[in-house]
């Protein structure tokens, strides 16, 4: 067929269609189905509305000329219903299916899928085409279950939430379309409650189970596990799905006791702390989410206290029982054994908070403790040992029980010298130096009541237990307390005459010193041991020269034993 013939036939066909009443070009005629314009589709669409789903949405309804005939916005309430089961006009039923939450659609509903030839008296005329602008807000189904997504979880999780546990958590609550309705963060405090006892909506009761402290979850709760048909006030509409972003801060059970974790225990642990012991320890105190609320390290001072006597919170009283010196221990304390429902504002401890103490035990002792003596080396054939009033020379190293070095005689040119029992050294060291042989080595553990006490001393913390490594270098037999010189036998009957070497009736310092030295040299007596014998003799002369005129007269010279006897008679 020629091209001209084809053109004539096409023109004839168009004329016939016009005669028969077919729509002219440019006029599509009546719509057969709903026209759907998905003008906004969210990037994430976890679910599309299906037949039988419950949905909540907002809409504006207009005619072709833009005149509004209805709006859910004007009523201040969303529309809730079931899609695809004939409860809506057919066009809306079809137009809502497949929508995502937060999706927006323009719908054009022809009359036969709307209100038909009847319309709605006073509102929608017959055979009206309807235009809807719709936003989907919520989708759920009666078969839905709780949707739990773990956002983050700590590496260590020794325990998870169970029914009847008391939990403290932060949350942000939104509707399914992202509209926020509540947040614990805005209140500046956690939400605290029991789980599984009916104090929470069912979905939250279920959603918190199995969580670890520090875990973050997203929990999507369908309306029938939330506030259902009634909603909640003005913030949660009826039939609303809820989305909670939850951070579990801590939890415990009212039946919980103290939980102990032994982080580091010294291989040698000869003794463990018991009730009545006085313990010095460092600690870091944190909440279960890691928030630091207190630290002895920040004060550069140990915490010192008796245990088992109620001076500290009950959980710590229990948690320190059985510790070793040098032990690192973690003590987890439930609130009913700590600061309870009220917390402790001074230390930034919230009410009902579980506390975690990481403890390092520096030392401990009991007020009844004696000096602990360990003989490291004792020479064979040891016959002479130190006694009270003996003069001794010794080397020592002094440290705290955690190994902190304090003092050492090796830092000086010569050993330490002291007369035992003369109150020149701490009581514990004095005791530890008794009954030693020359050359013997000992380790002494000195409790503070036999050391420097609660106040401590320069370089020594208060209430510190001290460790001494001592080595006895030499010893000299001493004299009784109060004496500077003693006779090995009876003193000469004519003592004054023997002292008065030039027989001039007076004994100056030189004659006195010469006589005393001769008595020592001949083994008839001995001076109080000292590193400076001349000073001892000078003190003796000063005591006898009662009028301090530089010489001793017969009336002034008296033996110490005679002086003591006179004092007794005077008192009687």
From TrEMBL:
Residues 1-21 form the signal peptide. This is peptidylprolyl isomerase. One of its GO terms (molecular function) is peptidyl-prolyl cis-trans isomerase activity. It is found in: Endoplasmic reticulum. It comes from the Eukaryota. Its EC number is 5.2.1.8. Residues 541-572 are annotated as: Disordered. Residues 494-522, 532-567 form the EF-hand domain. The keyword Nucleotide-binding does not apply. One of its GO terms (cellular component) is endoplasmic reticulum. Its main location: endoplasmic reticulum. It catalyses: [protein]-peptidylproline (omega=180) = [protein]-peptidylproline (omega=0). InterPro entries: EF-hand-dom_pair, EF_Hand_1_Ca_BS, EF_hand_dom, FKBP-like_isomerase, PPIase_dom_sf, PPIase_FKBP_dom. Keywords: Calcium, Endoplasmic reticulum, Glycoprotein, Isomerase, Metal-binding, Repeat, Rotamase, Signal. Residues 52-140, 164-252, 276-365, 389-476 form the PPIase FKBP-type domain. PPIases accelerate the folding of proteins during protein synthesis.
């Amino acid at each position: 067929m020629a091209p001209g013939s084809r053109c004539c036939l096409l023109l004839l066909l168009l004329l016939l269609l016009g005669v028969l009443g077919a729509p002219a070009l440019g006029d599509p005629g009546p719509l057969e189905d709903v026209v759907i314009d998905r003008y906004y589709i969210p990037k994430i669409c976890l679910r599309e509305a299906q037949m039988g789903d419950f949905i909540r949405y907002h809409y504006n309804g207009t005619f072709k000329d833009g005149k509004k005939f209805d709006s859910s916005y004007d009523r201040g309430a969303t529309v809730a219903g079931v899609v695809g089961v004939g409860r809506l006009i057919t066009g809306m039923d079809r137009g809502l299916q497949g929508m995502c939450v937060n999706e927006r659609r323009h719908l054009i509903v022809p009359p036969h899928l709307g209100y038909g030839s009847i319309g709605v008296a006073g509102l929608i005329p017959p055979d009206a085409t309807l235009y809807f602008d719709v936003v989907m807000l919520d989708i759920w189904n009666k078969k839905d279950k709780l949707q739990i997504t773990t956002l983050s979880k700590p590496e260590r999780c020794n325990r998870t939430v169970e029914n009847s546990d008391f939990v403290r958590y932060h949350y942000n609550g939104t509707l399914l379309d992202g509209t926020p309705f509540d947040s614990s963060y805005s209140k500046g405090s956690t939400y605290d409650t029991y789980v599984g006892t009916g104090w929470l909506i069912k979905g939250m009761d279920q959603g918190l189970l199995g969580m670890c402290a520090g875990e973050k979850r997203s929990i999507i709760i369908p309306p029938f596990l939330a506030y259902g048909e009634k909603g909640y006030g003005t913030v949660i509409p009826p039939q609303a799905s809820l989305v909670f972003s939850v951070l579990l801060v801590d939890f415990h059970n009212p039946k919980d006791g103290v939980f102990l974790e032994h982080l580091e225990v010294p291989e040698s642990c000869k003794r463990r702390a018991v009730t009545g012991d006085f313990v010095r320890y460092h600690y870091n105190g944190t909440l279960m989410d890691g928030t630091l609320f207190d630290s002895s390290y920040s004060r550069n001072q140990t915490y010192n206290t008796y245990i088992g006597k109620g001076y500290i919170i009950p959980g710590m009283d229990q948690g320190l029982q059985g510790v070793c010196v040098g032990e690192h221990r973690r003590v987890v304390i439930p609130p009913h054994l700590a600061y309870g429902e009220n917390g402790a504002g001074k230390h930034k401890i919230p009410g009902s908070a579980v506390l975690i103490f990481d403890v390092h035990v520096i030392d401990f002792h009991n007020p009844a403790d004696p000096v602990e003596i360990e003989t490291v080396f004792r020479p064979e054939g040891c016959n002479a040992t130190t006694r009270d009033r003996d003069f001794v020379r010794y080397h020592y190293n002094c440290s705290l029980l955690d190994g902190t070095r304090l003092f050492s005689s090796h830092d000086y040119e010569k050993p330490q010298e002291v007369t035992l029992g003369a109150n020149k050294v701490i009581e514990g060291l004095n005791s530890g130096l008794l009954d030693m042989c020359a050359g013997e080595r000992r380790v002494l553990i000195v409790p503070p009541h036999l050391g420097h006490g609660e106040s401590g001393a320069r370089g020594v913390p208060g209430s510190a237990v001290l460790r001494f490594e001592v080595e006895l270098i030499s010893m000299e037999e001493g004299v009784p307390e109060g004496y500077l010189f003693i006779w090995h036998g009876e003193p000469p009957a004519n003592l004054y005459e023997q002292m008065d070497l030039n027989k001039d009736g007076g004994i100056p310092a030189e004659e006195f010193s010469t006589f005393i030295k001769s008595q020592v040299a001949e083994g008839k007596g001995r001076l109080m041991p000292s590193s400076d014998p001349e000073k001892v003799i000078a003190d003796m002369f000063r005591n006898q020269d009662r009028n301090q005129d530089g010489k001793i007269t017969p009336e002034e010279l008296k033996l110490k034993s005679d002086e003591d006897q006179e004092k007794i008679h005077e008192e009687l």
